[in-house]
Write a structure and sequence with these properties.
CATH class of the largest domain: Alpha Beta
Mean pLDDT: 90
Number of domains: 2
CATH topology of the largest domain: D-Maltodextrin-Binding Protein, domain 2
Strand content: 15-25%
Number of helices: 12
Order of helices and strands: HEHEHEHEEEEHEHEHEEEHHHEHH
Strand order of the largest sheet: 2-1-3-12-4-13
Helix content: 40-55%
CATH superfamily of the largest domain: Periplasmic binding protein-like II
Structural class: alpha/beta
Distance between the termini: 52 Å
Radius of gyration: 23 Å
Shape: globular
Length: 278
């Protein structure tokens, strides 16, 4: 009887051990709230399924429908693998030791524009207190420009728009004195209308990327990166790359994202100096 009881006990311990083993619950894939749930599922579910096959662990895509929830998830370490922009990647690297894996091709660069006939605004400092058309934070374009204003009391008045084209129209119509745009898109639009001029160009930033957190072991991170660069990875990420009009992913390095968490300094909860004391 005792032998049978011991066997049952051992089996229960083994069973419980399987379900309490680190990583058994799987890994969570995350991305910013840019699409509807239907669109996001169509883009990220194939990637999650592909990563499940690659890692041998269940990878589940977690959808959020607003930036506050997304930021809260990042602050609380809810994700294991994320596709997002360089500011968030740099912040997670500094705070939690994340590793960038693969990125979209090309770099990101932004410009601040004014109407072509505006002769009084020639520098960012001239915009203090004036309406500036741009995406609501924490959009990278807006964060990049806001970072240049070191005095919180002397900032432009941000007028939120939903597209870079709307920022251009806001400037031309007089709704805003200036607008923030992606550099290449500005060139494309202004080539048709010739109604604006550039007063500021940002430095180039590395593109959006997949990164992995500390719950993903180094060997698994390397396996994921290699897989995402493969033909099968291209197939799994085809809808994502189409969304951003990008070719296949390319390797990402920690050096190019290091320090970019500073762009989030004015976003609540992301102050790295305060975070380091946690």
């Amino acid at each position: 009887m005792s032998l049978a009881r011991n066997s049952i006990g051992a089996s229960l311990l083994l069973f419980c051990g399987l379900f309490s083993a680190p990583g058994y619950a799987g890994l969570v894939l995350g991305a910013p709230p840019r699409e509807s749930v239907t669109q996001a599922d169509a883009i990220y579910d194939p990637i999650a399924n592909f990563l499940t096959r690659i890692t041998g662990q269940k990878v589940t895509y977690r959808y959020v429908d607003n930036w506050l929830s997304y930021q809260s998830d990042i602050l609380n370490g809810a994700y294991d693998i994320v596709f997002d922009g360089p500011a968030f990647i740099g912040w997670r690297m500094a705070k939690f030791g994340w590793t960038p894996l693969v990125k979209l091709q090309g770099n990101l660069r932004f410009v601040v524009i004014v109407a072509k006939n505006n002769k009084t605004v020639n520098d960012l400092k001239d915009l203090e207190g004036y309406p500036l058309c741009g995406f609501a934070p924490p959009n990278l374009a807006t964060l990049t420009i806001q970072f240049e204003f070191t005095n919180p009391a002397r900032q432009p008045n941000l007028i939120a728009v939903r597209t870079f084209a709307n920022a251009y129209r806001g400037v031309v119509s007089g709704r805003c004195v200036a607008g923030i745009m992606q550099a290449k898109l500005y060139q494309h639009i202004n080539a048709k209308h010739h109604a604006a001029r550039v007063i500021y160009r940002s430095q180039s930033l590395p593109n959006q990327a997949f990164s992995a957190g500390p719950r993903v072991p180094p060997a698994m991170r390397a396996r994921i990166a290699t897989a995402l660069l493969s033909a099968q990875g291209n197939a799994a990420t085809s809808k994502l790359r189409a969304e951003f009009k990008s070719g296949q992913f390319v390797p990402a390095t920690a050096q190019e994202y290091a320090g970019l968490g500073k762009l989030l300094k004015n976003v609540w909860g992301f102050n790295l100096r305060a975070a380091s004391n946690n």
